[in-house]
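Quick one, tokens below:
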């Protein structure tokens, strides 16, 4: 019997199924099943009542589940105690972020955090929203900040920051003199955009389809918003980007045009179980500084 097997049992009970437990832990469903089978074999018991769902324990399973919960809680306490031994909280926290919050929201916040907690190391890995969430599920990062509101079982998601999508064109483009753009204005533009997995691309493409009844194909796509902006600077007809990414670009011959109606969107902070004091400290810091118009 080891900690991983006990952890799997607790997750199965708390999440209600082997599949949800596997997603929460970041391992395969067969691995969770093997952990349960090994516990039963080593202890000579049946954990779950025959023919019943995973939520129905035998008498022996109930005793083992209580023991497992207590053991995991004690281990979490030990980890927190170790991180508190030093005068200051210390440790490493890893954040997975999509490009807009990773490039334009988190840097200033984390610089402020660094001034208050100099012994906590924070690593930010920037990717698209889909990959950032995947790395959270597989425990390659501790938090994620993305445009995705949906998450796997076992994680909490809260609104974190607001943003708006705008049309970016060169200063000599006919649209540059318009105060507003509509989704139908995009119909005949040869746009550049983001690759699949980007929340920016998903939001405007879904809105365009809902408004016009048809899809909009983008033939030139990049993995990062900076490349999209450079393409427009280089002569591409236009792109739909985050207002945050386009700020300060007027001196580069670029113009941002807001949509009517507005294409507003929210970035979300997603996190699982906090296992260290450093993680708890950064999470609390970020939650206190989230800025949304519709905090939940």
């Amino acid at each position: 019997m080891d900690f991983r097997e006990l952890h799997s049992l607790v997750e199965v009970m708390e999440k209600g199924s082997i599949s949800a437990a596997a997603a929460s832990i970041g391992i395969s469903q067969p691995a969770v099943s093997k952990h349960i089978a090994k516990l039963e074999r080593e202890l000579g018991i049946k954990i779950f009542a025959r023919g019943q769902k995973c939520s129905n324990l035998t008498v022996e399973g109930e005793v083992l589940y209580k023991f497992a919960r207590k053991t995991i809680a004690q281990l979490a306490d030990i980890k927190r105690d170790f991180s508190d031994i030093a005068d200051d909280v210390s440790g490493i926290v890893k954040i997975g972020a999509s490009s807009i919050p990773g490039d334009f929201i988190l840097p200033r916040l984390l610089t402020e955090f660094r001034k208050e907690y100099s012994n906590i190391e924070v690593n930010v890995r920037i990717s698209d929203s889909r990959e950032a969430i995947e790395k959270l599920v597989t425990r390659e990062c501790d938090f994620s900040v993305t445009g995705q509101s949906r998450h796997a079982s076992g994680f909490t998601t809260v609104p974190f920051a607001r943003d708006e999508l705008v049309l970016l064109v060169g200063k000599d483009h006919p649209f540059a003199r318009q105060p507003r753009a509509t989704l139908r204005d995009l119909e005949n533009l040869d746009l550049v955009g983001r690759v699949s997995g980007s929340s920016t691309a998903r939001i405007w493409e879904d809105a365009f389809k809902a408004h016009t009844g048809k899809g909009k194909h983008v033939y030139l796509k990049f993995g990062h918003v900076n490349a999209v902006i450079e393409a427009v600077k280089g002569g591409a007809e236009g792109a739909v980007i985050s207002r945050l990414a386009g700020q300060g670009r007027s001196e580069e011959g670029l113009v941002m045009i807001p949509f009517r109606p507005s294409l507003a969107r929210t970035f979300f902070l997603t996190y699982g179980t906090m296992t260290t004091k450093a993680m708890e400290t950064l999470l609390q810091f970020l939650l206190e500084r989230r800025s949304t118009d519709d905090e939940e």
